Amino acid sequence: MTAQIPAPTPPIDDKPAEAGRRDVQVLPIAADTFMLRSRSWNRLRFEIEYALEKGTTANSYLIRGNQVALIDPPGASFKDGFLVALAEEIDPHLIDYIVLGHTNPNRVETIKALSELAPQSQIVCSNPAAIALKAAEIELPIQPVKSGSDLDLGQGHHLEFIPVPTPRYPDGMCSYDSYSEVLFTDKFFGAHICSDDAYDLNRENLIEDQRYYFDCLMAPNAKQVETALEKLKDYVPRLYAVGHGPLVRYGVTELGQNYSKWAAQQKKKELSVALIYASAYGNTATIAQAIARGITKAGVGVESINAEQASTAEVKAAAETSAGFIMGSPTLGGHAPTQIQTALGVVLSAASKNKLAGVFGSFGWSGEAIDLLESKFKDGGYSFGFDPIRVKFTPDASTLQYCEEAGTDFAQKLKKSQKKTQVPRISATSVEKAIGRLVGSMCIVTAKRGNVSSAMLASWVSQATFTPPGFTVAVAKDRAIEGLMHKGADFVLNILAEGKHLGPMKHFLKPFSPGADRFEGVETRETEDGQLVLEEAIAYLECTVANRMDCGDHWVVYATVSGGEVIDNDSKTAVHHRKTGTHY
What we know:
Blueprint: E1 22-30, E2 33-40, E3 56-64, E4 68-71, H1 79-89, E5 95-99, H2 105-117, E6 122-126, H3 127-135, E7 142-145, E8 150-154, E9 157-163, E10 173-177, E11 182-186, H4 203-217, H5 222-232, E12 239-242, H6 252-267, E13 272-277, H7 283-297, E14 301-306, H8 312-321, E15 324-328, H9 338-350, E16 356-363, H10 368-379, E17 383-384, E18 389-392, H11 397-421, H12 430-435, E19 440-441, E20 443-449, E21 452-458, E22 461-465, E23 470-476, E24 490-495, H13 502-509, E25 524-526, E26 532-534, E27 539-551, E28 554-566, E29 575-576
Parallel strand pairs: 4-5, 5-6, 6-7, 11-12, 13-14, 13-15, 15-16, 16-17, 16-18
Antiparallel strand pairs: 1-2, 2-3, 3-4, 8-9, 9-10, 10-11, 19-29, 20-21, 20-24, 22-23, 23-28, 24-27, 25-26, 27-28
Helix pairs in contact: 5-6, 7-11, 8-9
Protein name: Flavin oxidoreductase
GO molecular function, one term: electron transfer activity
Domain Flavodoxin-like: 273-411
């Protein structure tokens, strides 16, 4: 017999949420199955996947058969509120199993609290998770499971376990309840967004957040993601019970297809970078994720390799086939972990000396591991794609922006190197010349969020609507400012004057090193919303991104105008004339 999933239940309170509020939403999602949805409207952590700053949810689940299973308790950030809500829903002494889709230090803290509240329960997880939990001295009995293992909870509920490891989450595991046809996906198919909508009722508004989540967490692990998706094809769920964001009920098929498409696109990249790292407390992995995001947004593939899990053969193959490689390490007791030292030896022996290298890592006091990697690659004759990145303790938003820009710089250098080896074309085609006759206003786009700011020269600008007043601007995917121009973000379009545009144009066209202040030496003032207006502009528009469309190597951003001013009535707008449509 197959249970029917009930219609979406309204939130406990249907009033608009206030920024900064935290609560736990409890609602039924299937037969005998409940969700405890811990919500935060603020950015949860300084990790690149949270950079859109739309808040997040940490979704946990209860199945109440003859036996009770708690699936994916949240991390320490939500621990206290979650435990209160859990105790109101069920006596913790009735919980028989705690099923984990992955482990990390944050989740371990909650598990330790649960071990006191539910000492009779046992943990069900993948074997890598079991090893990590034993190292963390978890007192509850641990039952590691393999692919195809199942757990009979009674009343028809039968959980089947599907390991879905990736370099970022080597202990990853999904669970499927064949009775309710719910797939508990943990890190797969989620999105970092918080709202009162528990389900994907507005799929069109969710797609950008789901894609950004994929690009941050899954794109660097495309090979492993495809393997996981192949396993999940054996199941036909009615519902993705995700770890973060709204439950996926209406877009199950579409989102599954998108994941397959997005992963395939990553694997087809002509150039790829081997990103090899180990992480003791998660900080080095966070840096790796930001660097990977910068590389992939520039159109270069990434093969992430967790040195603690990968074989020597995997490291060797990646070092030989990649166009460049980047290694990251924590410093433990003044040394690099043994796995990194082993991987370093493999890379030095397998990677040709003309490949671009990079080094990064986090440390508590001294950072000797980063020095070791840097010195070995220097001695080996390798060139560096960016200066070694050294992060003390936990990276903040500015540091992650720096790491993302470093990754983009690395990718751009690889692409330039490839172009040098290609035979140059003699002349532009007639079509390319015709495209070049399209003209646009010379503008500077400026954007700021918190203490992170950026700018770019833009000439592909065009008014798009009268009501509301709006325009489009094309933003290359490898621009640093791209991360500040997602849906809902504010920015300013500064329009330049004919005959006075060369100074700002040259300034913002020059290459900036990662983390550099793009406004150094430029006179600016702030709007009421904290955005930057150039004093040299003849007019400016205060804008909000209403939508954006994926168009090959650019995003076409549609923005609505909320304010603006003509500063110089006597000057004409500078216009950009080109001879060919193959470059700006």
